[in-house]
Design brief:
The complex is a heterodimer of chains A (320) and B (324).
Chain A: E1 2-14, H1 19-25, E2 31-43, E3 47-51, H2 58-66, E4 73-78, E5 81-82, H3 89-96, E6 99-102, H4 116-125, H5 134-141, H6 158-170, E7 176-180, H7 188-205, E8 208-213, H8 216-222, E9 225-230, E10 233-238, H9 240-245, H10 250-258, H11 297-301, E11 307-309, E12 312-314
Parallel strand pairs in A: 3-8, 3-9, 6-7, 7-8
Antiparallel strand pairs in A: 1-2, 1-4, 4-5, 9-10, 10-12, 11-12
Helix pairs in contact in A: 4-5, 4-6, 5-6, 6-7
Chain B: E1 4-17, E2 20-33, E3 37-41, H1 48-56, E4 64-72, E5 75-76, H2 82-88, E6 93-96, H3 110-121, H4 126-139, H5 145-148, H6 158-170, E7 176-180, H7 188-205, E8 208-213, H8 216-222, E9 225-230, E10 233-239, H9 240-245, H10 250-257, H11 297-301, H12 318-323
Helix pairs in contact in B: 3-4, 4-6, 6-7
Classes of the chains: A alpha/beta (320), B alpha/beta (324).
Chain lengths: 320, 324
C-alpha cells in the first residue's frame, strides 16, 4: 500500500517586485512555478529517490511532503490523510508525528545553545511524551555514545552531527523520513558511514525514506524507485536498474552522461548543451526542448504527459 | 625540477595556537609540469587548500610556511613578500575559487574586471585590453561576448560566472592555475562543461593546473596525476589511472571503495571506520594507523616512509599484500 500519494502537485511562488515598483515600471506579477503537476506514489518501507539539478523543485516537493509548505494546487496524502485539507485535528496530529525530516546542513539544523539530549528528544517532549533515557538509547543506535547526550553540537564533527539529526528524526518513531541532501555536506568516507546507518535503521524500524539528492550515485545506491525532476516537472520515474541501464528521457541521458565516472580517465564526454531555463518563463511544450538533441515540433507545442513505457513512467513524446 | 612549472619541496605550514602548534600541511612535495593537470584530493581538513594557498601566498596569519621550498619556473617564491608576491599573483599564477559569486566584484562590470587585471600585469593599452577581454570571454565559451562585456556578475548564471572567473584567471597568461574546488558549487551538467573547459585551455596553452577537489570522479576525468592527502600529509602520488585503479595506500583504497559507484549492486557501502584525526592530535607514526585494517606495530612507531615516484607513503602498500 502506498504511504505517500502525490497528485498534480504544484507550487507557485510569487517573486514579483513590490507593488510600487510594478506600477512605476509597468511590470506584471512574476510567478515562479517551482513544482508543476507532479504525480507519484511511495510504497511503505521503500526508498523513493528524487534527483534533479538546482532549481528542479526537489526540495520544494520535500517541504510540501512534510507540511513546511502548502501546495498551490494538487494534494499530498500521507497514510490516506491530506494534511493541507484535513479538518479533524486528531487525525492530522497522528499523521504529523509519523513524519520527520533530515536537512542538508548539520551545522545549521542543530540549535547551538541546546544540549544534544534536549535536541534529540524535542519531537517527543513537544508532544508531551515521556523522554526519560530516550536520548541515550537513540544516540547509541546511531553510533554515538550515551555520554554524548550532555554535550553541545559544536563538540561534534559534521558526520557526527548528521547522526544526531538522524537520532532526532527517529525519536518520535516516525514511519516516514524525508531526507533533503543528507550527505552532500559530508566527505565521501563519512557519507558511506551515514548511508550505511540509514540503510540499517530502515531495516530495523521499517522506515520509508524520501531521499532528495543531486548525486545520482547516492540515489542509485539507496533507492527502490527514482524520480528525475527537471524544472519542477517529473520527467522520468523508474527503478534504479531500469533508469541507469535503459534510460528513456533525453534529460536523464544527458545527466547520466555528464556525471563524472570513476574510470572515465581522460574521457571527453558529450557535453550538455546550455543550462536550466528561467522557471519564471519556462519554455513552451516540453520544458527540456531547447536543450534536447531529438526535439521535434510537437515538443515545442505540447507538454508531454507521464506515460508508461516498458517499466518506467516517462514524460517525453518521443520515448519508446 | 627541470621542466616543472611548479615544484613544492618538503612544504610545511604551521599555525601556532593556544594549545600548541598545528601542522595543516606537513612535509608535502610534488611537481606540476607545463600542460599537466595535477589533482589534489582529500577530505575536509586534509590540507589540500592550505597547500594551494601557501603557493599563491594567501595564508592567513598566523598560518605561515614553516619549512620547505616552492619553486615557480626556476624561481624560489616561498619567501616573497608584499609587492613582489602581488606581481606574481595574477601574472604567473591564476586562481579559481569555489564560489564564483564571491570571487567577482559585484560593483564592476566583468569587462572592467578583465581589463583591470590585464592592465596591471601586461604592458598593453586600454583599447588592446578591451579587445583581449572580449577574446578571453569568447575563449571560455560565453555566448555574445561582445555584448555581455558590460554586464555585471549578478546578471550571469553560476556556470557562466565560473567561466568569467576562469577567463579572469587566464587573462594575464599565467603559467600555473590553482583551481580550488572549481565545480563544487555547480550542477553536474555545468560541472562537466567547466571541467572540459579547464582541460581544453590547459592543453591549448600549456598551462599547468593544480586542481583541488574532494570529488574522485572529477579527478578521474580531468587530472593526469593525482596527489592524495590525509591529515596534512601526502598519502599517495602517481598517475591518475594507477592510483585510482590500483591504489597502494590503504586510505586511497578505502576512499575509492566507499564511493557509491564502486559499491554498485551491494547492499552496504565499504566504510572506513572512525574519522580523520584533529590536527592538534595527529597520531604518532603513520597518521592513518588507527583507522587502518593492515596496521602493524611498525606503523605506530615509525613515521610513514617518504613518498617517491608512484609509491605510497605506507610501510605495507596494498599491492605487496595481495601478492604475499
Amino acid at each position: 500500500m502506498a504511504l505517500i500519494s502525490v497528485k498534480n502537485l504544484t507550487r507557485v511562488f510569487d517573486v514579483s517586485k513590490p507593488w510600487l515598483n510594478r506600477v512605476i515600471e509597468r511590470r506584471g506579477k512574476a510567478l515562479l512555478t517551482a513544482v508543476s503537476d507532479v504525480d507519484f506514489e511511495v510504497a511503505e518501507r521503500s526508498t523513493y529517490g528524487l534527483v534533479g539539478e538546482s532549481g528542479s523543485g526537489k526540495s520544494t516537493i520535500g517541504r510540501m511532503l512534510v507540511g513546511l509548505l502548502t501546495p498551490s494546487d494538487g494534494t499530498v496524502e500521507i497514510g490516506g490523510v491530506n494534511l493541507a485539507a484535513e479538518t479533524n485535528a486528531g487525525k492530522v496530529d497522528a499523521v504529523r508525528s509519523d513524519i520527520q525530516m533530515i536537512f542538508q546542513d548539520p551545522f545549521a539544523s542543530l540549535n547551538p545553545r541546546w544540549r544534544v539530549r534536549d535536541i534529540v528528544v524535542e519531537p517527543v517532549v513537544a508532544r508531551g511524551g515521556d523522554a526519560t533515557g530516550l536520548a541515550e538509547k537513540l544516540l547509541e543506535q546511531v553510533g554515538l555514545s550515551a555520554a554524548d547526550a550532555g554535550k553541545f553540537p559544536h563538540e561534534f564533527s559534521g558526520g557526527q552531527r548528521q547522526r544526531i539529526c538522524i537520532a532526532r528524526a527517529l525519536s518520535s518513531e516516525p514511519k516516514l523520513i524525508v531526507c533533503d541532501e543528507p550527505t552532500s555536506a559530508l566527505d565521501v568516507s563519512v557519507q558511506a558511514q551515514v548511508l550505511n546507518l540509514m540503510s540499517d535503521l530502515k531495516d530495523n524500524f521499517g522506515l520509508t525514506y524520501v531521499l532528495i539528492s543531486h548525486d545520482l550515485t547516492v540515489v542509485q545506491h539507496m533507492s527502490d524507485v527514482i524520480g528525475v525532476l527537471y524544472l519542477g516537472r517529473l520527467v522520468e520515474e523508474a527503478t534504479p536498474d531500469e533508469l541507469f541501464n535503459n534510460t528513456k528521457h533525453p534529460y536523464t541521458k544527458m545527466l547520466l552522461e555528464a556525471a563524472p565516472l570513476m574510470d572515465g580517465f581522460g574521457r571527453e564526454a558529450a557535453l550538455p548543451e546550455g543550462e536550466i531555463p528561467d522557471p519564471i518563463n519556462p519554455p513552451s511544450g516540453c520544458a527540456f526542448h531547447p536543450r534536447c538533441p531529438i526535439a521535434e515540433d510537437i515538443c515545442r507545442q505540447e507538454r508531454p504527459l507521464l506515460r508508461l513505457v516498458d517499466n518506467a513512467r516517462v514524460a517525453c513524446h518521443l520515448a519508446q | 625540477m627541470s621542466d616543472a612549472v611548479l615544484s613544492i619541496r618538503n612544504l610545511s605550514v604551521e599555525i601556532p595556537t593556544r594549545s600548541g602548534v598545528v601542522k595543516p600541511v606537513d612535509g608535502v612535495s610534488y611537481d606540476i609540469s607545463a600542460g599537466e593537470i595535477l589533482g589534489v584530493v582529500g577530505e575536509s581538513g586534509a590540507g589540500k587548500s592550505m597547500a594551494g594557498n601557501a603557493v599563491i601566498g594567501l595564508l592567513n596569519p598566523p598560518a605561515h610556511i614553516a619549512q620547505g621550498e616552492i619553486w615557480l619556473n626556476g624561481t624560489r617564491i616561498d619567501a616573497l613578500k608584499g609587492e613582489a608576491m602581488r606581481r606574481l599573483r595574477g601574472k604567473e599564477i591564476g586562481m579559481v575559487f569555489q564560489d564564483p559569486l564571491t570571487s567577482l566584484n559585484p560593483l564592476l562590470s566583468i569587462g572592467d574586471q578583465l581589463t583591470e587585471t590585464m592592465l596591471t600585469h601586461l604592458p598593453i593599452s586600454r583599447a588592446e585590453a578591451g579587445k583581449r577581454a572580449v577574446a578571453a570571454l569568447e575563449e571560455v565559451g560565453i555566448p555574445g561576448a561582445a555584448e555581455r562585456i558590460d554586464s555585471y556578475p549578478h546578471e550571469f548564471s553560476g556556470g557562466m560566472r565560473q567561466r568569467v572567473v576562469i577567463a579572469l584567471a587566464l587573462c594575464a597568461e599565467p603559467s600555473l592555475i590553482i583551481a580550488d574546488e572549481p565545480t563544487t558549487a555547480l550542477d553536474v551538467s555545468v560541472q562537466a562543461q567547466i571541467i572540459a573547459l579547464l582541460k581544453r585551455l590547459c592543453r591549448d596553452r600549456g598551462t599547468a593546473v593544480m586542481l583541488i577537489t574532494h570529488d574522485m570522479g572529477v579527478i578521474a576525468e580531468a587530472a593526469d596525476r593525482v596527489a592524495v592527502m590525509y591529515a596534512g600529509r601526502l598519502a599517495e602520488l602517481g598517475r591518475v589511472r594507477d592510483v585510482l585503479t590500483q591504489p597502494q595506500h590503504p586510505y586511497t583504497g578505502g576512499l575509492m571503495a566507499s564511493t557509491p559507484l564502486a559499491s554498485a549492486g551491494k547492499a552496504r557501502l565499504h566504510q572506513i571506520e572512525g574519522a580523520m584525526p584533529r590536527l592538534d592530535n595527529v597520531p604518532d607514526g603513520c597518521p592513518f594507523h588507527p583507522r587502518c585494517t593492515y596496521a602493524e606495530s611498525k606503523c605506530r612507531a615509525a613515521p610513514a616512509p617518504q613518498i617517491s615516484q608512484n609509491h605510497a607513503a605506507c610501510w605495507f602498500p596494498l599491492m605487496a599484500q595481495k601478492v604475499s
